[in-house]
Write a structure and sequence with these properties.
The chain is α/β, with parallel strands linked by helices. It is 38% helix and 15% strand. The longest helix is centred in the middle third of the chain and has 21 residues.
Length: 214
C-alpha cells in the first residue's frame, strides 16, 4: 500500500478509439506540495481547459512523460497491447523512478514497479487525471499537425474518430497511411479498392518527455 512518501505515478492513454493516428500514453508524478487545481478526466474538460492544465502540469509536476505506439504497432499487436506498450514507454521516460504506478482502467502494463489499476481513475486520482490531460492534449496536437499533410480527412476537427464526416472522407478518398488497417471501417474501405496510399506508417517514438534534472 502506498504511503504519503511513496513515489506514485499516474498513467493513462488517449486515442484507443480513433480510426487513424497513433495511441498516446502519459505518466505523471505530482509534487506533494504543488497542488494543481481542476484536475479531472480530460474528456470532461474543454479544449481550452485542457491546454491550461497541461501547461501547469508540465511546470508543476515532479516528473512527467508522454510516449506513443505507432499505427503499425496498433495493427500488428492490436489496440489494447499497443496502448499498454505506450504506457510502458511513458513510465520508462520519467526522470524520477516511481515505486507505484496507478493505471486507469482494468488492464495493466508490465512495469518494474508495483502496478495498481483503477476503473474510473482518470476522474478519481489526480495523477491519473494529469496523465489523461497530457496524453489527450499531445495526441490532439499531433492530429491537428497532420491536417496539413492529409487535408482531405479533417483530422484537426475529429482527431481521427469515426465521425460522419470522417467516414464520408474515408469512403470517398480511401485510407491514408495513418489509418489503422485493423479497424473495421478502414478494412471495409480497403476492400472497396480505395486504398490510395502506400502504408509507410508512423514510427514508434517518444512524443514528449520532461528533461532530466540534476
Amino acid at each position: 500500500m502506498a504511503t504519503p512518501t511513496t513515489i506514485v505515478c499516474g498513467v493513462d492513454e488517449a486515442g484507443r478509439g480513433p480510426l487513424a493516428g497513433p495511441v498516446y500514453a502519459a505518466a505523471v508524478i505530482l509534487a506533494p506540495r504543488r497542488r494543481i487545481r481542476g484536475l479531472r478526466d480530460s474528456k470532461k474538460l474543454t479544449p481550452a481547459q485542457r491546454q491550461l492544465l497541461a501547461a501547469e502540469i508540465r511546470e508543476r509536476a515532479l516528473a512527467w512523460a508522454v510516449a506513443d505506439a505507432s499505427v503499425e504497432e496498433i495493427d500488428r499487436l492490436n489496440i489494447l497491447r499497443a496502448s499498454l506498450l505506450a504506457m510502458q514507454r511513458a513510465v520508462a521516460l520519467l526522470s524520477v523512478v516511481p515505486e507505484v504506478a496507478r493505471v486507469d482502467g482494468n488492464q495493466a502494463p508490465d512495469l518494474s514497479c508495483t502496478v495498481q489499476t483503477l476503473v474510473g481513475g482518470d476522474d478519481a486520482d489526480p495523477a491519473i487525471s494529469a496523465a489523461s490531460i497530457l496524453a489527450k492534449t499531445t495526441r490532439d496536437r499531433i492530429m491537428e499537425d497532420l491536417e496539413s499533410r492529409y487535408p482531405d480527412y479533417g483530422f484537426a476537427r475529429h482527431k481521427g474518430y469515426a465521425t460522419q464526416d470522417h467516414l464520408l472522407a474515408l469512403d470517398r478518398f480511401g485510407p491514408c497511411d495513418i489509418h489503422r488497417r485493423s479497424f473495421a471501417p478502414v478494412r471495409i474501405a480497403m476492400l472497396r479498392g480505395r486504398s490510395l496510399f502506400d502504408f509507410d506508417l508512423l514510427p514508434a517514438t517518444a512524443a514528449d518527455a520532461q528533461p532530466s534534472v540534476d
